[in-house]
Write a structure and sequence with these properties.
With 423 residues, this protein is an alpha/beta fold. It has helices at 12-18, 26-33, 59-70, 97-107, 142-150, 166-172, 181-186, 191-202, 204-207, 216-220, 223-238, 250-256, 265-276, 279-287, 295-309, 322-353, 358-362, 367-370, 377-394, 396-407, 411-419; strands at residues 6-11, 44-45, 78-82, 91-95, 113-121, 127-135, 152-158. It has 21 helices and seven strands. The strands form two sheets. It has a five-stranded mixed β-sheet with strand order 1-7-3-4-2. Strands 5-6 form a two-stranded antiparallel sheet. Helix 15 packs across helix 16, helix 16 packs parallel to helix 21 and helix 20 packs antiparallel against helix 21 (411-419). The longest helix has 32 residues, at 322-353. The termini are far apart.
Length: 423
């Protein structure tokens, strides 16, 4: 293998034969390469450490890339790292997974190509533009297929001798858009990167229901992995008896995403259980259009759940199921928000009638403002104290009622009892 980075122009046909990232049908493989398909076509390994989540390209963007191949307008290379493995893989892809996947998808008829292709010249030597509209590869003429598979793309090869520098190489390149902070962290070979990837894959249905996190574009940019890393940071610092929380920001996450950082196993397992506990709730919410997990509801639920299962300081909730605990969290959040907003209105009326000064009003802390700033230590402390105080002082009778109904399996009545709190 080469000892230095080099770039080569490779036809689509050769890419299919030697650098395929995902398999294509045997018939199409034979048609394009004129060779018998191997048992395992895929020669390129996809290392999740060096990838964005596939799906960020829509059909229009895919068609633009196919058009650029047809028209020999490829300027950004696919980057492959050479590997010495005992299995079938000979390369690992560092950059260009979207592009490599789009080529395989197009050949596999996963989408129709729309765009203009310069394929011939007229009698005066002027280029003739051929328009395509939602055209599948299999429906193209033999000449059109040949033009596409003869077209060249660039591949940059990283020699195996530089394998210890792949993280740095990945971070300095990009696949059309700059990497965000979490995508850079994901490239670090560390425990929390592997853990957050696994949690993201196992609980996709939950993350889709959480506001801000669950937007498809955000999920594709690893919002779920960043979010669970922040939840880990919150729970890890939750154990501090003086509630001296760390700010849930990039600086904190960068400390965790280190090759030398060892995760707290108890916190890690607890966050796993916390996220999975929302699966039943998400199934119910999904049946109701526009029903999502609001961020304030999630943090109130996390506080209640952690007090019960992590800190084990609220034994009164021991008979309440995950779904009933969620309902209790929602009612608590709704009521605290309602009270807080009413207090703010009352205070502004007091300012108008002269019974309160503007300076005194500015010293008041409002739940609805603090829960939006939950990433800050001061806001965390305030919200936690408000939630615990509310549960301790106002919901004792409710909890007893819910436990009694839950034991007798009168789930609907138990859910209604919780709903009545915010009525």
């Amino acid at each position: 293998m080469a000892q230095q980075i080099y770039t080569a122009s490779v036809s689509v046909r050769k890419m299919i034969e030697k650098y395929l990232i995902t398999s294509i049908s045997d018939d199409v493989y034979l048609e394009i390469t004129k060779k018998k398909p191997p048992t395992n076509q895929v020669k390129v390994f996809v290392d999740d450490s060096f990838q964005r989540k596939y799906g960020a390209w829509d059909t229009a963007k895919k068609s633009m890339y196919i058009a650029s191949i047809f028209n020999n307008q490829i300027y950004t290379p696919i980057v492959l790292a050479e590997m010495n493995r005992d299995d079938n893989y000979k390369f690992s892809i560092l950059d260009g997974m979207h592009r490599a996947n789009v080529i395989a998808e197009f050949i596999n008829d996963k989408f129709g190509f729309t765009g203009d292709v310069i394929m011939d010249s007229d009698e005066d030597g002027k280029p003739v533009v051929i328009p395509f509209k939602n055209k599948l590869f299999s429906n193209m003429s033999d000449r059109q297929k040949l033009v596409f598979t003869d077209s060249e793309i660039e591949i940059k090869f990283i020699p195996e001798s530089l394998s210890n520098m792949l993280n740095e190489v990945f971070i300095t390149i990009n696949d059309g858009e700059p990497l965000n902070s979490q995508e850079k962290r994901n490239a670090v070979n560390c425990e929390i990167a592997r853990w957050s990837r696994h949690l993201d894959e196992m609980n996709e249905s939950v993350f889709k229901q959480i506001t801000k996190v669950g937007a498809s574009n955000n999920l594709q940019r690893m919002s779920a992995r960043e979010f669970v890393s922040k939840v880990y940071g919150f729970i890890k610092n939750y154990k501090d008896p003086v509630l001296d929380h760390a700010r849930l920001n990039d600086d904190l996450l960068d400390q965790y995403y280190s090759e030398t950082y060892v995760m707290d196993e108890n916190v890690k397992q607890y966050v796993n259980s916390l996220i999975s506990s929302l699966e039943g709730t998400c199934r119910k919410l999904k049946k109701n259009k526009n029903k999502v997990i609001k961020m304030d509801q999630f943090w109130v639920y996390t506080i209640l759940h952690s007090e019960l299962f992590f800190e084990k300081s609220v034994s009164d909730l021991s008979g309440v199921s995950d779904e009933l605990l969620w309902n209790l969290a929602v009612s608590t959040s709704d009521l605290l928000l309602k009270q807080s907003k009413k207090l703010e209105v009352d205070n502004f009326q007091s300012i108008e009638d002269g019974s309160m000064s503007k300076e005194d009003e500015e010293k008041v802390t409002y739940f609805h403002e603090e829960v939006r700033r939950f990433h800050t230590p001061q806001a965390m402390k305030y919200v936690i104290e408000e939630v615990k105080s509310h549960i301790a002082s106002k919901n004792t009778a409710l909890i007893d009622q819910v436990k009694e109904l839950k034991v007798s399996e009168k789930m609907e009545e138990a859910e209604q009892a919780i709903a009545n709190v915010s009525g």
